[in-house]
Amino acid sequence: MRNVSLDLRKAMFDDETGEVIVLLLTFEHPDFEDGPVRISSDNEDLVDFEEQLRGTVSRGETFSFVPMEIALPAEGEDVQPTLSLTVYDVGNELEPILQRSITPAFVTAEIVLASAPDEPEVRFAVFELTQAAIEAGNAVLDLTVDTLASEPFPADTFTPGRFGGLWTTF
User: Fold this and answer.
1) Tell me, what CATH number does 106's domain have?
2) Residue 26: which of 121, 104, 107, 83 has the closest Cα?
3) For 14-30, what is each residue's pLDDT tens digit?
4) Is 12 domain-assigned?
């Protein structure tokens, strides 16, 4: 069970609230030459006046605003738990990164309140970016948690031919 603040619970369940729930995403990959890419679902704060960049500053890091929409995983026994994220109007900084990576990037998702961006309310497990489809400036990203359910079972059988040391007597 997650412990979240009363402010977050009120923001989620009240009919009207002045609080904004913000999703922060951090994309990390060894091929990213300029370091992690950070995006935010909140456009309230002007973080760079000269470039008119909006977003969120959390723990000293700038998360650029990108309009996005999230679809939660489908339910079912044989369904891979995949979070679908649609990022609208993908900028020049995100599109080349999504197109040039061969191995999956890792994505950290956090929920913060706009009034307290330095205090993450919820931090999700690290997702793998398993698919990125870019069309007309919009990107549909599939994020998956690396689960043991996708691993073959049994992975190996313990036979004398494969694990001889288990079968020797002293």
Assistant:
1) 2.30.110
2) 107
3) 888 888 889 999 988 88
4) no
The boundaries of the domain holding residue 129 are 19-166
| Residue 10 counted as domain residue | no
Q: What's the rounded mean pLDDT across residues 52-60?
A: 86
Total number of domains constituting the chain: 1
Q: Strand, helix or coil at 108? A: strand
Q: How many CA atoms lie within 13 A of 89 on its CB side?
A: 5
Give the burial string for 69-78 (b: 16+ CB within 10 Å, else e).
Answer: eeeeeeeeee
Question: Are 39 and 22 in contact, with CB atoms under 8 Å apart?
Answer: no
Write down the pTM of the prediction.
Answer: 0.76
Tokens representing 105 are 């990037």
